[in-house]
Amino acid sequence: MKPLFTLKPGQTWTGAPPRSEVRVIDSIEKNHVVFRRKGKRRAFLTLQETTIMGFRKWIQQSQAISDDGLSATDLHGFSPSREIGQRIQLLRKAAGLSQKAFAEMLGMSRAAVCFWETGRSSHISEHVPRIAEIFGISEEVFLNGQNNETIPIELTKDEENIIKLYRSLSIENRLQAIKRMEMLYIKG
């Protein structure tokens, strides 16, 4: 089983060649990562700081691998935006639509559809109803990838309250709630 994607102090990340930059995390404070970058001539340079998202972006761009076996591909497993992008691509292809044809149906540019399909779901929430309509599915199926079925399950009062609150949110706020929960999960 693959380890969960977690940034933690002491972790060493090495980027892919040709740069092969090495970063060692010193600490994680609130939304920031404090790290040292290994130089070619010196052991380690002074402390540097970036946001957690900035560090994750560097991991993706440099295709870095950690000393505990994590890689840039592990980042995608925790991204609701990426999952929605993959769902759009899957539905679009199943419907036999090109990115351009799908974009035209939405009254958008092909670049916007490409942007979504790569997990950068900026402003997608306002288009969810139309996307669901084009594919002939409910908004719930589009967002969650599954139908609502009545399955007997026992929930705690806290879980029931969370579900009620989530269902009362707008689509845009649901996406934000999912992202925030993802960040809390990553922080552990």
TrEMBL record:
GO terms for molecular function: DNA binding. Keywords: DNA-binding. It holds the Pfam family HTH_3. The keyword Membrane does not apply. SUPFAM superfamilies: lambda repressor-like DNA-binding domains. Residues 88-142 form the HTH cro/C1-type domain. It comes from the Bacteria. This is HTH cro/C1-type domain-containing protein. It comes from Novacetimonas hansenii ATCC 23769. The lineage of its organism: Bacteria, Pseudomonadati, Pseudomonadota, Alphaproteobacteria, Acetobacterales.
